[in-house]
Structures are given as structure tokens and as C-alpha cells.
Amino acid sequence: MPTPYSFPSPGFTEAAPLGAHDPRRLGPYRLLGRLGSGGMGTVYLARSRFGRLVAVKAVHPELADEAEYRQRFTREVNALRRVRSRFVPRFAGAAPGADTPWLATGHIAGPTLRRRVEKVRPLRDGALARLCAGVAAALADIHRAGIVHRDLKPDNVILSPKGPRVVDFGVAVPGSERSARGPLWGTPGWVAPERLRGAPATAASDVFNWGQLTVYAATGRNPFGTIAPEAIAQRILRGEADLIGLPMEYLPLVRTALDVVPERRPTPEQLLLSLAP
């Protein structure tokens, strides 16, 4: 499986000082510090001319001239433009054709789900309920915009004071552009079974990841284990999810979300109806 197209999460509150080689401005935004750096680029904390804080992703200069990376960055920009959701950072601006391609979104203060679980503890009670409903609502809005996220995982959910936010549309695709051919983009251990069999990602694939995410949030582990990626893939294909530790009230819904047959999984709207009480 190829390494995912990815940036560090823009959700951390702490920003490191800008380095000597960091730009001071990107488009209309004044950069304040570095939120993180990854294989694809750097995420900066910045301020707009109106005083709003934003997170600005910038592609590494050495990758900006590579057509594949620029195309993927443009796809991320186009996907995020289409989504309107209180559970997704708002699109603030982008210049995918610039010498240094950049994308700005509203800054979300708070840790990623992975950081929260690893540094504190798994979620319980109201915190778990808010996560499950918020991510399901985000998926409903994302799918309504005709987008499949394809990389829903603990690193791509930020726990803000106002509820969870789904981030990183780097491998998202419009539903009309899905293809069964080509590389399997995603994160090992967080891929739906139909995708492992070679089928394209659909909205049901994101719902499968919702089920995994719920188990992780409640127990601190991937329901298919943390062993070698090949062994995890076999467990996913056989539907061997470990749900020990998941609160009883979530078991029926998570079991259906993790069904190996995509057509038997609930939609995000059905998840929300089941979670409402």
C-alpha cells in the first residue's frame, strides 16, 4: 500500500517559532509559527487581514514541481471547497497553482483523537457520544457534497472544545471519480474490506472507518489489532473485530458499521438516528 499523501494535523494549539527558511507570508496570511511538518509539507499557524487564526498547509518546495503531488494537492483543495459542515474546518482560501502551493482553513484548537487517547485515556460517556455523533454528522455532510474521505482515522479527527472536526482531505475523491484501478491509497489497518479486495471506496467505506474509530476512541486500540499490516488486512477481510471494552450500547451499531458487506452498513444519517437517544 502506498504511503498516504499526508500533512501533519493542523489541530494542535502549540506553534513552534518560524525557522530561518520559513516564509513569513503565504497569500494574504501572515505566518505566526509552525504547527507541524510532514513528508508532504508544513502546516503553519497564521492570521488573516481580519485577525482570524487559520491553519495554512504549504507543500515542500522540492515537491511543488512534481505533477503528482500538485495534482493531489489540487484535488484536496477542490474537495474541501465543496464541503459545508460545522464538523469540518471551514475553507478559507487556496492557491494550488502558486510557486509554493498552499491551502488555508479555519484553525481548530485541540488535540487529535490519537493524541487524546494516548496521552490521557480513551473516551467515555458524553465525550464518546459527542465524538460518535459529530463524526457521523461530518460524514453525512461530506457525502452530501459528493466526496468520499477515504482516510478517516484517529490522526484525522481533532477534538475541539465545540466538538470533533474531521480533517485532512488529501486522499479524498469525488464520488464520480472513484475507480477500482490504481493504487490503494489509505492508512494500513484503516481500510475497509471491499477496498482490500480491489473495489473503489464508497460512502460505506467511510462508515466502516467510523466503526473502527468508535472502537478506538472507547478502548484505545484498533479493533483489528496492531500486528503486521498484512495480518490486520486478513482480519479485516474475515470480519474479526475485537469489540471487548466497547460500551454495550454501541455494540449493535458498531457491528453493523463493521459488516464486511458494504451494502449492509448503515448510512451516516442512520447512524445519527440510532445515536440520537
Walk me through this protein's architecture:
The chain has 277 residues and is of the alpha+beta class. It folds into two domains: 25-106, Phosphorylase Kinase, domain 1; 113-275, Transferase(Phosphotransferase) domain 1 (Transferase(Phosphotransferase), domain 1, Orthogonal Bundle). The chain is 34% helix and 17% strand. It is built from nine helices and ten strands. It has helices spanning 61-64, 67-82, 113-119, 125-144, 193-196, 203-219, 229-238, 251-257, 268-275; strands at residues 25-26, 29-37, 41-47, 53-59, 91-95, 102-106, 147-148, 157-160, 163-166, 173-174. The strands form three sheets. The protein has a six-stranded antiparallel beta sheet. It has a two-stranded antiparallel sheet with strand order 7-10. A hairpin with a 5-residue loop joins strand 3 (41-47) and strand 4. Helix 4 runs antiparallel to helix 9. The radius of gyration is 18 Å and the shape is globular. Residues 1-5 have low confidence and may be disordered.
Q: Outline, from the CA principal axes?
A: globular
Overall tally of domains: 2
Oligomeric state as shown: single chain
What is the alpha-carbon Rg in Å? 18 Å
N-end to C-end Cα span? 39 Å
Summarize the topology.
Elements: E1 25-26, E2 29-37, E3 41-47, E4 53-59, H1 61-64, H2 67-82, E5 91-95, E6 102-106, H3 113-119, H4 125-144, E7 147-148, E8 157-160, E9 163-166, E10 173-174, H5 193-196, H6 203-219, H7 229-238, H8 251-257, H9 268-275
Antiparallel strand pairs: 1-2, 2-3, 3-4, 4-6, 5-6, 7-10, 8-9
Helix pairs in contact: 4-6, 4-9, 6-8
